[in-house]
Amino acid sequence: MTLRSQLALLAALAVLLGAGWYAWTGFQAGAQSKEINRGSGGATRVLVEPARPTTDKIIVRAVGTGEARRSATIYPKSAGEVTAVMFKSQDRVRKGQVLMRLEDAHQQIAVRLAKVQVKDATRQLQRLEKLAPSGTASQARLETAQTTLESANLMLDQAEEALNDRNVYAPFDGVIGLTEIDLGDRVTTETQIATLDDRSLILVEFELPEEYAGRIKTGDPIAVRPWTMPDKKFEGTVSQLGSRINPQTRTLRVKASIPNTEDLIRPGTSFEVELAFTGKPYPSVREVAVLWSRDGAYLWRVKRIEKDGKTVEQAEKVFVKIVRRDLGRILVDGPLDATDEVVVEGVQGLRPHQRIKAIPFDKFVAGELASPTKGDKKPAKKSP
User: Fold this and answer.
1) In this predicted model, what pLDDT tens digit does every residue of 68-104 receive, in sequence order?
2) Looking at the structure, do residues 226 and 362 belong to the same domain, yes or no?
3) What domain range includes position 143?
4) Number of independent structural domains in the chain
5) pLDDT value at position 383?
6) pLDDT per residue over 116-131, tens digit each?
7) CATH number of the structural domain spanning residue 129
8) pLDDT at residue number 12
């Protein structure tokens, strides 16, 4: 037998095996369906389970923009030539850290001169105070010396302040941005030195629709996803609420605080903001229980009536409104109670008031209720 003949034979066998498997699985599925639907006395067997009361969760999404916890643009307090630049972009700096120095020779001279004047005024006052008891120094001269010393101290404070202003300090802990300042540059009080951002916490601002304004409060949990990192989710809390509704947009201004301990978020980032509010309780049923018709969504409920002294189970058609889907289940709004049993298997072909036999779904799946193969015959009693 040639190789081509062998391959053709193998292909034919594969087709026959596939057809046999398909026929067998189809037979098994049909047999199982017949087991569920077969009942006694003309009653159609169906699987049922109670409508599960579930509190609805309302998810509100918005677009937000992040800003640093604190931000500042740093300017020098005086003009002059730059003699030292003590930072570079993206440096982490501490509050009070010196970032830049300006030429300060004149200011240092002014401080030394002011110290000399304070020393001289102090010596003059002390000399007059020693002469005052003997009457050699008049009270007027003594008061003039005191005033001179006070003035000298003020001049010293002013000179030291002017010298201190030749340094540029970080106003708080943060990260330095870009700078175009170099050694030898001349700056003024209007020259931008750099930006400084405290990124330890990011404030995300967004607009909340008016209908939820009365339900949000500070401290509520919130989640945000940066558009640049859609797979990253950051948790935080609502920290600030606006005091009024915007009459044009009909929204409330909200700020949320998002910890940024790993420094992954930058100020100015756009976010998808997600808030969850607790809604009303609704009955929850399996998706397979809900059907659709021209009149809308509906399901089958078990209705029990007394007939000839016996309890008879019937199918009752109940129209519902879909609230939302939730992990294989559907929250519905309609005339259902938590004790109502809903048909979840065998819904196709049911008619209003059709006689049924309700089998608990969970017990059937767990095997606690075996499906008889022929009707609902009770097992024969064992002879003693």
Assistant:
1) 999 999 999 999 999 999 999 999 999 999 999 999 9
2) yes
3) 104-165
4) 2
5) 45
6) 999 999 998 888 887 7
7) 1.10.287
8) 53
Domain's final residue, options 165, 184, 212: 165
Domain assignment of residue 96, yes or no? no
Q: Select from 120, 146, 165 the last residue of a domain.
A: 165
In a domain, 3, yes or no: no
Which ranges of the chain have pLDDT less than 70?
Answer: 1-41, 135, 137, 368-384
Full 3-state SS string of the chain: CCHHHHHHHHHHHHHHHHHHHHHHHHHHHHHHHHHHHCCCCCCEEEEEEECEEEEEEEEEEEEEEEEEEEEEEECCCCCEEEEEECCCCCCEECCCCEEEEECCHHHHHHHHHHHHHHHHHHHHHHHHHHHHHHCCCCHHHHHHHHHHHHHHHHHHHHHHHHHHCCEEECCCCEEECCCCCCCCCEECCCCCCEEEEEEEEEEEEEEEEHHHCCCCCCCCEEEEEECCCCCCCEEEEEEEEEEEECCCCCEEEEEEEEECCCCCCCCCCEEEEEEEEEEEEEEEEEHHHCEEECCEEEEEEEEEEEECCEEEEEEEEEECEEEEEECCEEEEECCCCCCCEEEEECCCCCCCCCEEEEEEHHHHHHCCCCCCCCCCCCCCCCCC
